[in-house]
Input
Amino acid sequence: MSLNEAPSGERVHIGFFGVRNAGKSSVVNAVTGQELSIVSEVEGTTTDPVKRAMELLPLGPVVIVDTPGVDDEGSLGEKRVDRTRRTLSSCDVAVLVVDGARGLCAADEELLREFGERKLPYVIAWNKCDLAPARPALKTLGEKDQDLAARAVPVSATTGEGILELKERLAHLVRPDGRERRIVADLVEPGSTVVLVCPTDASAPKGRLILPQQMTIRDLLDGGCLPIVCRETELSSALGALSEPPALVVTDSQVFGLVAGIVPEDVSLTSFSILMLRYKANLVPAVRGAAALDRLRDGDRVLISEGCTHHRQCEDIGTVKMPAWLQGHTGANLEFSFTSGADFPCDLTPYDAIVHCGGCMLNAREMRSRQARAAEQGVPMTNYGVAIAHMHGILRRSLTPFPEARAALDL
Output
């Protein structure tokens, strides 16, 4: 996948962290080769995480994230620090930028502790190595902790020294987990026909397919399969034109009920949202979380969260359709809260259930982090596709391709 083709959620996210005036923005600019962030001698110039897509070989497409200093002060500073710490949830790799002339401070050591707790791969950019005090301080670090010293790369954002080594170290820091993640092609044999049902209603982008549909088509093509794309209104004709039943039908969740009535019972059926959740995180907790929807009562609070920000249409699934479906399914007068993009709460305890989108615009680490946060706080969390299938009484059928998740229905 090329630089221009790779969506943000499919890129490795590399976050640059540290205290104010350690030179984070200068190092980021040196790594990206452009002025991504404003640089100033004034502490706290970076006020919000700043992101930039680039190609980092041999790793490939990445997102570089410059963050505010973790030692910021005051009420506004606390909000900046909170934004910085939230960024940790979506980062695949971290860079701790240290003022080499000053050495590690307490805030740096706290960040290192968080990296370790999150099992986050990291490297230390020992900045300002062109200044006389920096190298003796780095030598002292080696005497104190050999592991930290091995992770440290002396750099100078001013002269460019060490920047190439830092980029090469980052490029080799993320290693494959031994298996290639697939969206759908691992569920069917090469040469199989897969029908994809893609509505073109008001919520669909004019002139193009939404990202999960694009990604699913590409994965099927890469797997040597035969994707057939149609709307729900032409589904019967598409199935009738085939000489034999398809190996799988994948539908947009919003027409799950209609499509389930058309597709023969002996043909596997699932949704783009369910596929995306399996691809990004873990399907089993979402299946278990769907059962919690049946227990909702008057006054219970439901968080509906989406990973992207988009213009809301009159029939928006998150703010209009999903609340209506939940009210109808439970018969309860529920209270709803809505979040989008990076605004996923740290404290989830006020909610009785969470319904999340498929997460196509979020990377896998962010989706897994959100699932883990909900589990740790004891709040049931499911996703759009799973919830809609459950409310239509077809969840078991929609999980046919996923035996482990289907088994969770019987626990």
